[in-house]
Write a structure and sequence with these properties.
about 100 residues, alpha+beta, 3 helices, about 30% helix, elongated
Amino acid sequence: MMTELNTATDTSPATRMERMRARLEAALSPVECVLEDDSASHRGHAGAASGGGHYNVRIISSKFEGLRLVMRHRLVYDSVHDMMHNEIHALAIVALAPSEA
């Protein structure tokens, strides 16, 4: 019997990162998107205990041109908003416009 992977409910780290990347790419059409799982560095942290991961993202998108840092971060957070607090405990962001990369 073959089981089908349900990526909407699968919270394994690999699938979680795939979903994060897909959301970031769909919302921001980045030239570059480097996503790293830093959860292992935070073992024992309260967020890790709840199942939320710690991630770093370096994203370069033309959608950031002319925007202040806080607005760039808002666009990133908005793209993964449904994953925040449950699957993502912390997200460190480097958001650049192509002219800054």
